[in-house]
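Changelog entry: the G domain-containing protein record was regenerated in this release. Current contents:
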Amino acid sequence: MGGSGTGKTTFVNLASGSKFLVGEGLESCTDSVQTRNFVFEGKDVTLIDVPGFDDTTKSDIDVLQIITDFLISEYQANRLLTGVLYFHRISDVRMGGTSKRNFTMFQKLCGIDAVKNVAIVTTRWDKEKESIAVARYNELSTNPQFFQPILEKGGKIFRHDRGVQSAQNILRHIISQTPIPLLIQHEIVNDHKHLVETAAGAELHREIMEQVEEHRKELAEIIEEMEQSGDSDLEDLERECQELRERMAHWYTESDKLSNMSTSKPQSLRAAESSSPSDAKKSTLDCPPRPQESIPEGNDAVTVEPRNTTVPSPLAAASHPQPPASSVHHVMGHVQREAWEKEVLRKRVQEFTQGVQATFANCRAGSAALVKHVSEGVRNVAALL
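Regenerated structure tokens:
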């Protein structure tokens, strides 16, 4: 695992003699799970190449679904991973947002019990001055924000020079480990969690909500500017607003996608449940013991708690969907509440964007007083978010 361009596919090709397509530009080449079976020092080995969470052709949610489906299929077939390789470019000046997201998702997928089977592979040493690369390597190894927690719990870090011998040394270490399940495999198969309820799914949900909040604040700033702007500036503001609306639409689409995944199980799990009851029972009983929760990262929580969503009056009665009737006497199930809250949020955003459109239309036709009046109305709608 690792970001695009970190050397995952190149490593597989070197270690196994494969010829998977390797990307040399900015676009990703691995958009699905690729496997290579071969014999190494008398042992049957399968190397698995997966897309990164910065894929140029797929969203992070799509990538998570692809990886999860494959892992669940392997787990149900009692094929456990001997090790997990995480690739990182030593030539990267800093651990930026994309690298941090990939590493965070890696930790959420693996969980703390699998850390001792992790090998961090640093690549692109030939692209950086030796002294600078070594200093960076030492920082990554000792900083609690980076790889230090992995190494402290038994993981290893390697310097890979893109040579066959280097790749084989790393492979030799990995296949010597005792196979172990990953956290997400246990969460979905043994704990029967939906994808959004897993540590990895909850992390993606948190990121989506951060993006939504950021765009909401930007829209509020545009509305504020509108009060101070003349007619000549309104077109620019409307263009900015439209761009924000499109970005918000993207994140709400992603949120809906993750929500839909939370109400249906991965394809491999659905296929298993359609088989005979005895087979399904055997698959569950053969699963290894439960791993601990994912590696703690500061105050970040990996559990998904139902949000306390309060719909303000009078919109609650007139416009927004109400909780299912059964919740009057019983605590609403987590997935049921999630679906209801998503619908409430979608309704609010729809009203908000309609209010913004009305604001621009009225601003063109009205006076400064009308601009102020309409802007205040839109701010009231925005407050619902």
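The radius of gyration is 25 Å.
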